[in-house]
Amino acid sequence: MTKITIISGSNRAQATTTQLCSYLQQVLESKGCLVTLLDLYVMPLPLYSPDVVCEDANLAILRNSLNEADGIILATPEYHGAPSGVLKNALDFVGSAQFSGKVVLSVSSTGGPVGVSSLQQLQTIVRSVHGINCPEWISIGGENRTFTPEGEPVNEKLRERALHTLQYFVKMVEAFSPEL
């Protein structure tokens, strides 16, 4: 069974980033994947410092989930043309031990039309920790950040885009994971 870890890097209640992550989780689970969704709003991490050895319980959950994952989805709101500080802080606690050789899908939610800057920066981080960037990505913006009470995006084209991207992502994960 394909194991996917999704990290929602928003630090806000009812964040559209997390709503999108929940939708992606539903779709992946319907396709037979085992999905762990880590919401950094409800699972806060301490501030990273390379000078401090951190034994935080939430950090242990993050590392273990990433270690066990065959594929990873990183999701962020876009703040000032960059990923959230909350997600960057989480990524500072991990590295190539968790990402090396794993396919990573980058996802963003932004108040503007599309969050390209944050997605490009996430892909740079993924390369730096020896992950494999999925060439597809998902970015929602403006009025496309609306979800039904059941958790699906209201915009049909966004749903189609998400389904296409997730199908591509899972095929990549299966192709690159030696245990699948």
Q: Helix and strand succession?
A: EHEHEHHEHEH
- Poorly predicted runs: none
Strand order of the largest sheet: 2-1-3-4-5
Number of domains: 1
Class by helix and strand content?
alpha/beta
The CATH topology annotation reads as Rossmann fold
Largest sheet: 5 strands, parallel
Question: What's the rounded overall pLDDT mean?
Answer: 94
Q: What is the number of helical segments per DSSP (H or I, 4+ residues)?
A: 6
Q: Could you please describe the fold and organization of this structure?
A:
There is one protein chain. The protein is α/β, with parallel strands linked by helices. It has a single domain (about 5-175), classed as Flavodoxin domain (Rossmann fold, 3-Layer(aba) Sandwich), CATH 3.40.50.360. Helices cover about 40% and strands about 20% of the residues. It has six helices and five strands, in the order βαβαβααβαβα. Strands 2-1-3-4-5 form a five-stranded parallel beta sheet, with helices on both faces. Strand 4, helix 5 (about 115-130) and strand 5 form a beta-alpha-beta unit. The protein is globular. The relative contact order is 0.19. The model has no long low-confidence stretch (mean pLDDT about 95).
